[in-house]
Amino acid sequence: MRRRKYRVVRCDKLSAMKPTTTAHPTKRTLPDPEEPGDYQRIARAIEFIRRHAASQPSLEQVAAAIDLSPFHLQRLFSRWAGISPKRFLQAVTVEHAKERLRQRADVLTATLDTGLSSPGRLHDLFVAMEAMTPGEFKEHGGGLVIRHGFCPTPLGFCFVATTDRGICALEFADSASAQAEIMTRFRSEWSGARKLEDSAAAAKIIDQVFARNARSAQPLSVLVRGTNFQVQVWRALLDIPRGHATTYLEVARHMGRPSAHRAVASAIAANRVGILIPCHRVLRRDGQLGGYRWGETRKVAALLWEAP
Questions:
Q1: N or C end of the chain, less CB within 10 A?
Q2: β-sheet with 282-283: strand ranges across
Q3: Are the C-beta atoms of residues 32 and 175 closer than 8 Å to each other?
Q4: Is residue 253 part of a domain?
Q5: CA-CA distances (angstroms) from residue 102 to 95, 105, 120, 256?
Q6: DSSP 8-state assignment for residue 54
Q7: Residue 279 bears catalytic tag
Q8: Rounded distance, CA 250 to CA 256, Å?
Q9: Residue 63 is part of which domain span?
Q10: Do 59 and 134 belong together in one domain?
């Protein structure tokens, strides 16, 4: 069945900061996710602003909440997100999100018609997705060699795993316990594969994923393991352009299954390859974020990072 083209809305014009170069963790040593960094400070500011949006906190109040001076908060937030904390406060309200979702411009249709030459896809990565066969799924990756590692990103520490056929995991971990949980699940889900720690390979992938001009980077392949329906949903997410968002219902309509929006939400929640399979670009119809495997604060941060 031919996919139905669905509507997406453009997020606010928010520019991205070029990722800074950070030393990669040594072999068999997990990075310390508690070490202060730009993302941790940005995340705390986002959390405070979202939690107190109704009272419209001042720059001084936000700065005091995260132990920075107003000057340093203004400079850090503007550098990282491309807008001031005040503008972010205006953009983060539910009413604003609902208004954006009410817009009728069929951005996705225009993007699909014009391809990567569309201005909205200027910084898009080209991502090709391959699904494991039922036999490979049953064998838990038997015959595969998986290189993996933890490394820092503009959105916090993440775990990356890759095979010759594509990236099979990109998950964020904010604490040592979260990192340990990811490793336990990874070893279980891919128990049949040969697993090699390779932080350099992980860092190379992250450099491509978060390149400022992603279009100039090499295409990336993703290898996923899931049910047929889950794979269909993840493929549909690849059609949402960078810097835009849509709803769970619109994704279901796009797939020709308008009554399956709850099942679509469940499939999106099961995604293990963050950012590349852009589940963060899907919101609830009422303008609420709708949850995110790696936390709603990171979902907001990811949308900020991507916005033009």
A1: N
A2: 9-10, 244-247, 282-283
A3: no
A4: no
A5: 11, 9, 19, 21
A6: G
A7: yes
A8: 10
A9: 26-92
A10: no
